[in-house]
């Protein structure tokens, strides 16, 4: 499993680009169609970068079988960013409520559990060369 420090620096770069871009976007543009889509992209980037070290820490603290590699940790951080952007988008249309938020989060958790279950079925531990 990769170290948390490697995810920290990657997450810091993504978070700075995302939150800095959001600051520039909200202060210097008007909310037309192009900047609105750019807002969702930058917001996803910012949330994913912010969540990346946290997700790496949680995966190191609560290890699974097979252990989560860098791709799994990055995918889980991207899920956080997508969920946050989807919640903001639903709130813009005044569609979001507590039940929709919980069902959406449950759907993302279910997708991740099924992906991890598929990885577990293909995982074969390395043979020991002791014997």
Question: What does this 3D model show about the protein?
Answer:
The structure is a single chain. The protein is mostly helical and 131 residues long. It has one domain. The chain contains four helices and no strands. It has helices at residues 4-28, 33-61, 70-92, 98-122. The radius of gyration is 18 Å and the shape is flat. The mean pLDDT is 92.
Short characterization:
The chain is mainly α and 131 residues long.
Record the SSE blueprint:
Blueprint: H1 4-28, H2 33-61, H3 70-92, H4 98-122
Helix pairs in contact: 1-2, 2-3, 3-4
Mean pLDDT across the residues is: 92
- The value of Rg in angstroms is 18 Å
Q: What class would the helix/strand composition place it in?
A: mainly alpha
SSE topology string: HHHH
Shape: flat
**Number of distinct helices:** 4
Number of domains: 1
- Report the strand count: 0
Low-confidence stretches: none
Helix content percent band: over 70%
Q: Sheet with the most strands?
A: none
Instruction: Tell me the span between the first and last alpha carbons.
Output: 25 Å
**Which strand-content bin applies to the residues?**
under 5%
């Amino acid at each position: 499993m990769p170290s948390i420090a490697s995810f920290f620096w990657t997450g810091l770069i993504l978070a700075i680009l995302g939150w800095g871009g959001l600051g520039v976007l909200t202060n210097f543009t008007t909310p037309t169609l192009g900047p609105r889509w750019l807002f969702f992209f930058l917001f996803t980037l910012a949330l994913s970068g912010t969540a990346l070290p946290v997700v790496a820490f949680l995966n190191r603290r609560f290890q699974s079988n097979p252990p989560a590699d860098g791709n799994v940790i990055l995918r889980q951080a991207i899920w956080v960013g997508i969920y946050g952007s989807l919640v903001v988008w639903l709130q813009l249309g005044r569609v979001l409520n507590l039940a929709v938020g919980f069902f959406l989060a449950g759907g993302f958790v279910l997708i991740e559990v099924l992906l991890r279950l598929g990885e577990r079925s293909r995982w074969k531990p390395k043979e020991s060369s002791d014997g």
